Amino acid sequence: MPQDDLMPIGAFAQRSGLTSSALRFYADSGLLPPAEVDPVSGYRYYGADQVARATVLRQLREIAMPLAGVEAVLGAGADAASRLLDEHVARVVGDAVAAQQKAAVIRSALGAAPGLPVAALKGPVLADAVEQVLTATAHEPGLPVLAGLRIEASHEAVTLTATDRYRLSTRTLVPTEPPTQTWAGTVDGDELRAAAAEIRRSPLVRIEAVPHGIWFRVADREDRHCRLLSEDFPDYRLMLASLGEVTTRVAVSKDLLLRALEEHPGERIGLDVADHGVNVVSGDGEHPGIPLSATATGRALRIRFELTTFYPAVSTAIGPDVMLDLRGHDQPVTIRSADRGDLTTLAMPIKADHPA
């Protein structure tokens, strides 16, 4: 290689983001040998065409991939490299979850206060409810509580609630044994989502509160621990209490509505409600609508939604039909099962002239 195309190790370190010592290590290990080594001084020189390989090498090490894995990825084609990356990430995530569970066990063994029994619920029912309500969570910088799920136990019921400020989902469950006292806490949504599979396979799950977390106690399986979030959960009851009067009510087939939402182009959709039923239109009004047979009462209404807000609210509804309680084009719509009201979702509409 012409000398003008080579750069000394210091310059290459700046280009690649690797330290000089790391470059020497990777050269000695055979992962990134220099293009040339001065036979007299021993100085190492690298070519510009090696920057890309060095950058990928650095990125792989940043996600804690071992040297053998790095070598395999660098030597593989695109499809095989992608598979190796997925396998590595799955191992890292699995190890992190296992570490969290072991840490929870260790905390219990260190003499923490005894757990407080919260409620006993059927595992499959609880898992379904968790997954349904968690669709209304979001990861927002500075607002970790929006990724959490609120659990509230009263003497009669257990209520699960989540909100991302554009949706609010809540479901009420009847425990198999009435709770002896009230309790409330906001659980880390990611950890709860990971625990749902284990919960689903357990006929009975007992929820037990401990400092900074809750345990899901299951028979003949490994108990699961989830952290509690310290931030205040939004006052959703105040929002529910301030909802206006329902002016239009629609009952429609859930499957037909979902199919119409899937078929319509665009990121925004609209509902035109009249006596004859519902017309699903695009949010920009540029595409013909899809008419749906529905039972509609009240005044005619045109309302618009972001697809990412409205679709999950409909898809998680229980039963073959959904009920839409509408209060106006700029007010939250309540989406619930037409025959079972224990899962309720609020979805915020957008203005008809919402910018693209």
Short précis:
With 356 residues, the protein is of the alpha+beta class.
Beta-strand percentage range: 25-35%
CATH architecture of the largest domain: Roll
- Low-pLDDT stretches are none
Q: Rounded to an integer, what's the Rg over CA atoms? A: 28 Å
Q: What's the average pLDDT?
A: 88
Order of helices and strands: EHHEEHHHEHEEEEHEEEHEHEEEEHEEE
The CATH homology group name of the largest domain: DNA Polymerase III, subunit A, domain 2
Name the CATH class of the largest domain.
Answer: Alpha Beta
What is the topology?
Blueprint: E1 6-8, H1 9-16, H2 20-28, E2 36-37, E3 44-47, H3 51-62, H4 67-74, H5 78-109, E4 116-122, H6 123-133, E5 148-153, E6 158-163, E7 167-173, E8 183-188, H7 189-200, E9 204-210, E10 213-218, E11 224-227, H8 236-241, E12 248-253, H9 254-263, E13 268-274, E14 277-282, E15 290-298, E16 301-306, H10 307-315, E17 321-326, E18 333-337, E19 343-347
Antiparallel strand pairs: 1-3, 2-3, 4-9, 5-6, 5-8, 6-7, 7-19, 9-10, 10-11, 12-15, 12-17, 13-14, 13-16, 14-15, 17-18, 18-19
Helix pairs in contact: 4-5, 6-7, 9-10
Using brief descriptors, characterize the structure shown.
single chain; 356 residues; alpha+beta; Multidrug-efflux Transporter Regulator, Chain: A, Domain 2; DNA Polymerase III, Chain A, domain 2; 10 helices; globular
